[in-house]
Amino acid sequence: GMYGLKRQQRDTAVMGIVGNPVSHSRSPAIHNAALQQLGLNAVYVPLLVDDMARFLATFTDADWIGFSVTIPHKQAALEGAQEVDPVAAQIGAVNTLVREEDGRLKGYNTDWSAAIAAIERGLDPATPSSTDASSSPLAGKTVVVVGAGGAGRALAFGAAVKGAKVVIANRSVQKAADLAAQLDPPASACSLEDLASGAVRGDVLANTTSVGMHPQEDETPVPAAALPGFQLVFDAVYTPLHTRLLKEAATAGCAVVTGETMFVGQAADQFKLFTGKDAPVDLMRTVVLDSLA
Ligand code: ATR
């Protein structure tokens, strides 16, 4: 990342988001606002890409600083990177590709670190920006991850890295069990019904499914009766910001963390990887919240 900005003092440095679809992404707005705020000679563009392998081959020799990667290319980005951060490799998904000094692409996953940091701050606002398993407020806590897709994998591996006990609750219990078995130490798996009945309890509940994204359907992945006793509930859904799950969690006396924290955090961590500079997080949050209003 630093390479591009140092080397291209006079030329505009370029980065972008690779996805399909990509036109509705809020990433260009928040990254460009941040670049402008810091006075950096760089732009961030949306890139509609069908074939990730072919795209990466095309851009091998170009002076791009790096790419954000979104659906459906996070796995292909992992395969296309010449070096991969160990946690991203475990998760099996790369959402950030950064060109190293020698031109090689290194893959990272800032989804897990952003979600975990948001939850850590929700538990303890004084949590420093990076923690290990001994200093994290998640250490020793039981984290129930609802969902076993890409976001669920990121949350589950992240919580395990921080020393939490992980339970995966998923509609398909087989998929939950498969993910649970990949964690070290292995997590437990349960059905959404087990969670709904109160048979499964914990300290932190994190929804990573899309249930709740369509407010007219008034859906929640976990019924209100199962929420009391959780210290904190996080929802990765941020359209709307206050999902039925989070409203019912607040009523049940749980602390709540809204999903835009994860979106802003993953972008801020990418910005740091791309530019080497701390992101203007408050500005990025304002841009996202304005776009939701
Ligand atoms: P993402 O990358 O956003 O996590 P994904 O990989 O498609 O998306 O995973 C979607 C997750 O949401 C899965 O855990 C899925 O449950 P299944 O594995 O049983 O399919 C869950 N999910 C999606 N729609 C759901 C619904 N209506 N009710 C319950 N779970 C749902």
Describe the structure.
Residues 137-210 form the Quinate/shikimate 5-dehydrogenase/glutamyl-tRNA reductase domain. Its EC number is 1.1.1.25. Keywords: Amino-acid biosynthesis, Aromatic amino acid biosynthesis, NADP, Oxidoreductase. The protein is α/β, with parallel strands linked by helices. It has two domains: 2-108 and 262-292, Rossmann fold; 112-258, NAD(P)-binding Rossmann-like Domain (Rossmann fold, 3-Layer(aba) Sandwich). The chain has twelve helices and twelve strands. The strands form two sheets. The protein has a six-stranded mixed β-sheet, sandwiched between helices. Strands 9-8-7-10-11-12 form a six-stranded parallel β-sheet, sandwiched between helices. α7 links the parallel β7 and β8. α2 packs across α11 (260-275) and α11 (260-275) packs across α12. It is globular and about 60 Å long. The model has no long low-confidence stretch (mean pLDDT 93). 2'-monophosphoadenosine-5'-diphosphate binds next to α7.
